[in-house]
Design goal:
Blueprint: E1 9-13, E2 21-22, E3 25-26, E4 30-33, E5 58-62, E6 70-71, E7 74-75, E8 79-85, E9 88-91
Parallel strand pairs: 1-8, 4-5
Antiparallel strand pairs: 2-3, 6-7, 8-9
This protein binds iron/sulfur cluster (SF4).
């Protein structure tokens, strides 16, 4: 069995209302990007209770096969940033492949 330990880091996330967010950082174990056609954070959920963890989240999976950083539905960037894009919570590191 291979256990992945080399996930890209979620370097910054400013979505303070998310349960996993504290101090502009994501503290989930891992997040999934790509809820629908846009690079939405699929792990985001609004909660008044927040995690007590201080770990830094990784990108566990990404469904954005058309992103320049995506290889075989996994993110290959060193780190990503998550933030607001209109009404959505998006991976701001997304870059459409040409
Ligand atoms: S940078 Fe691209 S491949 Fe990496 S999580 Fe964001 S959308 Fe997915």
């Amino acid at each position: 069995m291979i256990i992945a330990t080399d996930m890209p880091e979620v370097a910054k996330c400013v979505i303070s209302q998310c349960a996993y967010n504290a101090d502009e950082s994501c503290h989930a174990r891992a997040i999934t990007i790509g809820d629908g056609p846009d690079p939405d954070c699929d792990t985001y959920f609004d909660s008044s209770k927040h995690t007590e963890s201080d770990r830094t989240a990784g990108v566990g999976a990404c469904k954005m096969g058309d992103c320049a950083h995506n290889d075989d539905f996994e993110c290959t960037a060193d780190a990503i940033q998550v933030g607001q894009n209109g009404n959505a919570v998006n991976c701001l590191t997304y870059s459409a492949a040409h």
